[in-house]
Amino acid sequence: MTVAAAHARRMDGIYRSQRHFYDLTRKYYLLGRDRLIADLAPPPGGSVLEIGCGTGRNLIVAARRWPHARWFGLDISHAMLATARAGVARAGLDPRITLAQGDATDFDPQILFGVSGFDRIFMSYTLSMIPDWQAAIGAAVDALAPGGALHVVDFGQLERLPSPLRAGLFAWLRRFDVTPRADLEQWLRVAADARAASLAFESLYRGYAWSGVVRRD
């Protein structure tokens, strides 16, 4: 079994039941998602991809926030995509949101979506769950169109929170196979530098979340 197939199987196992109440619980601790969506600002008619789209919650919010853009979602979990497709249909956004199953570390935008590159790509709390997350960053930047931007938000190192709270949160996240990436900024910069792109990076909410934007010329 390949690494990607094993990861897909693992994600389906985790979310087969959780997907039904995922959005009700995650809104309390996946901080910075709506801030990321508000910052996307895709150009008129632009294409936007969410990698690790999960239940489709972010795509639905973003498609309503930016009605002039075209929206795409990629996830490795068949279970999550089933929930996402149902949610998109209920929201009446089928004509504007296209979903596909795929591996964040190795995907072809043209084959999956008929798009050569995206004006915006975003990854919200996904890198902390992808085994080869460094490759996922590189694949995302490679899928940007000229002038495009990759927006990332994920767990930080909780660096300005009290030590007992920090230890407790890390222990709790491990129960869900979530690993905050201590060198996230470093690898975003590696990907940016290798492709002559720029990086803006910041710590949010006392280090609870980290945010990065990679922009291609």
UniProtKB/TrEMBL annotation:
<keyword id="KW-0489">Methyltransferase</keyword>
<keyword id="KW-0808">Transferase</keyword>
<dbReference type="InterPro" id="IPR041698">
    <property type="entry name" value="Methyltransf_25"/>
</dbReference>
<dbReference type="InterPro" id="IPR029063">
    <property type="entry name" value="SAM-dependent_MTases_sf"/>
</dbReference>
<feature type="domain" description="Methyltransferase">
    <location>
        <begin position="48"/>
        <end position="148"/>
    </location>
</feature>
<dbReference type="Pfam" id="PF13649">
    <property type="entry name" value="Methyltransf_25"/>
</dbReference>
<protein>
    <submittedName>
        <fullName>S-adenosylmethionine-diacylgycerolhomoserine-N-methyltransferase</fullName>
    </submittedName>
</protein>
